[in-house]
Amino acid sequence: MKQRNVAIEIWRFLISVAIIGFHVGWIIAMSCNGSLGYWMERSNWFFGSSEVLLIFTGTRAAQTAWSTFGAQLASTNGMGGSADGATGTLGFNNGFLFVMLGMMIGIILFYALQKLSKAEFSAGARAALTVANVFCSVLLMWYTIYQPTYFLLDRWTVSFLCIAVVGLSLLNKDGLTALLNNGATNKLFAYLGSISLYVYMLHYPVGILVLRVLGKNTEATTYSFWQVFLPTTAVTLVLSVMTKIAMEKTILKKK
Asked: Nearest CA to 61 among 191, 180, 169, 177?
């Protein structure tokens, strides 16, 4: 029996947790500081445009690897611009182009990789792909958790790293992907990937709730990033498991 490729699933899970860090330590911290009575430490977490790696499209995961990249290219501010930055120039909301361009190129990439995966790869080619995947994965995770490195990566560079990691995971021809697809952790990785969508959908309101439970504070008693991130992640994971169970017993129940 052919074993399922779960390398993409563990990436889905890790990315969903990383996005909690991005939203809690940056978006929520920026919007709540001072004006709403909450003071939070801003983290350096940055996941190469977090939307790039929202690998929640299942077998067509490659679609999302291009989404933010496409939107940023169309932005008047270049790769660091916002999704609506070119509205005046294009005559319509750039967010629409953001989605359509991402899906179009992503689908092409997915089917290209699917066809390429049927080819035979030499030992040398597999070794080269392994080195590339390890390099891109390590650099991507390092830059996510500790952005101010001497590499000084631009936003578009991180987007390409995301695309490389997703693409190589889908190709499933390198040693790192094979290692992640080991029999011992196959079911665990598959399960973690299956709750990643719920993690993404639930974490933001949970983060706000955690702040409210902690209570308003002052600049002198600023909450650290970890004070908010850890309980937000823990509660989100529990709720995600509960939501998955509830969905499988109701809406997703197999007849």
From this structure: 169
